[in-house]
Amino acid sequence: MTQPKKKTTIILFSGDYDKAMAAYIIANGAAAYDHDVTIFHTFWGLNALRKEAPVPVQKGFLEKMFAKMMPRGADRMGLSRMNFAGIGPKLIKKVIKKHNAMPLPQLIEMAKEQGVKLVACQMTVDLLGLKPEELIDGIEFAGVAAYLADASEGNVNLFI
Amino acid sequence: MNVAKVLDAKGLACPMPVVRAKKAMDELQSGQVLEVHTTDKGAKNDLPAWAKASGHTVLDMKEDNGVLMFWIQKG
């Protein structure tokens, strides 16, 4: 069992609750498979890393608009289908509870516990006007080269 | 069979049974046996797949009243 660990990399582009859930379930599964796992968050996927509470930061008008219009944190994200202006997520969370599955915020917590590397794409963090202090602790900031370094050794590479 | 540890993963849904099994297995020595109880029907395929990929051996599997039981020997 001394051979190098296998690698899984996931790009989370989507800001949809259901798609992020799929990404994090795969990440947790891969960690249980003893893979080195990286989730690279870009564009709308960054919202999964936002803190739920508003963080007072200095930013311009456009950036403030973006911050307002995007969900603050994983729990506030909408569904890719049947969102029904926010009723869909409430229903899905109900069935998640009923089936004893894990809601997204807990999946993210567990991924961190299992040592999944959470990466925020620096370029899109800047584009969307997010500040590092608005994102949860314990994440890394990187770009395409860092992703490719992981992905080129990856046994499983997904774009969600 | 000499069971070193019993993992009760009943009621838990994917991916928890495998995540818990991995955690429990990390505490065992090579050759020791982990007994897993789960009600997740997906685990029927999930646990053997995970065991194989992780170098463990599924010694036995049983289903009783909706509860799946696995005996997995650490590799």
UniProtKB/TrEMBL annotation, chain A:
Pfam families reported in the protein's UniProt record: DrsE_2
Domain of life where this protein originates: Bacteria
Protein's UniProt name: NADH dehydrogenase
Originating species: Geobacillus thermopakistaniensis (strain MAS1)
Source species taxonomy: Bacteria, Bacillati, Bacillota, Bacilli, Bacillales
Automatic annotation (TrEMBL), chain B:
SUPFAM superfamilies attached to this UniProt entry: SirA-like
Pfam families (UniProt xref): TusA
PROSITE patterns: UPF0033 (PS01148)
Domain UPF0033: 7-31
CDD domains the UniProt entry points to: SirA_YedF_YeeD (cd00291)
Domain of life: Bacteria
Family in the record: Belongs to the sulfur carrier protein TusA family.
Protein name: Hypothetical conserved protein
Organism encoding this protein: Geobacillus kaustophilus (strain HTA426)
